[in-house]
Amino acid sequence: MDKIEMIAKAEQLVAKIDDLPTIPAVATQVLHLLDQPDVQVEQVADLMLSDQVMTARVMKMINSPVYKPSHQISSLKRALVYLGLRHIREVALTTSFISAFDETSGTFEIGTFWEHSFGVGMVSKIIAEKIGYLDLERAYIAGVIHDIGEVFLSNYLRDEFQQVLDSIKDKPIKLVEAEALQLGTTHCEIGLCMARKWNFPEVYCEVIAYHHSPAEATIDPVLCAIVNLADLFYSVRELNYGGWVSFNLVEEPSWKILKSMSPSLGQLDVERFCYELDDAIPDVKTLVRSIFNSQE
Ligand SMILES: [Fe+2]
Ligand SMILES: [Fe+2]
Questions:
Q1: DSSP 8-state secondary structure symbol assigned to residue 146
Q2: How many angstroms is it from 172 CA to the middle of ligand 1?
Q3: Ligand 1 centroid distance, CA of 86 (Å)
Q4: How far is CA 142 from the centre of its chain?
Q5: pLDDT digit string (tens) for 166-201?
Q6: CA of residue 117 to ligand 2 center, whole Å
Q7: Which partner from 105, 112, 232, 256 sits 20 to 30 angstroms from 98, CA to CA?
Q8: What spacing in Å lies between the alpha carbon of 290 and ligand 1's midpoint?
């Protein structure tokens, strides 16, 4: 099906929803503040402290095994100093995503969705490091947000989405293909419309739209390829929320894109690499649990 038609269909679906979650205003302000030259950690801390939910989540996140502080960090300012300005952006964005979606209940269990998203974020970062992609934080964020369109389907198109999931159960059909066939659009185009509504930077919009077809990307195909591969690796090793995953690495367009950027990737010991990823999985589970517990 034509991408333009699928985007048009996604636009219709997204436009129909009046209560589409919003990204907290503080998160957008933090992102803008961090883009200013000479920004001070104190300024960011003051701004973040005005949002208690965000503060609580940042504290939980920073004390989780993912960031591995040597001792418990108890003040936001210290947490931000420990994170460094670059990582504050990553934490602000991811915590806001969770705020935007955690109240809702949909077809699939939201914890599973976040485990998948953070897992793909972490694996994206690992792959980015391996191939010498310069902005590791960007790779992480791109991985975390790649499937936001699925939350929309799960929350707002419950029955139709359940039918899609049922139809592919135990069958060798990819979720994204079943969506296209049955809904006339997929989580990629829907995610794109949401990301545009939220004024996301174009580079992230592109990852959301093309993470299943990285060869079609034009702004940053390498980033799309990183997330695509992370998604495949993570889904095949551990969990996703439905659909069949099987792939032959050497035939994947994303592998070709990444190899052209980093020829040494050809020597990668894939099996060993998968073990490395397995090691990251318990950390992801702990992270997601710790973030969600911050509400209780
Ligand atoms: Fe996806
Ligand atoms: Fe995914």
A1: T
A2: 16
A3: 26
A4: 5
A5: 998 888 888 999 999 999 999 999 999 988 887 777
A6: 7
A7: 232
A8: 25
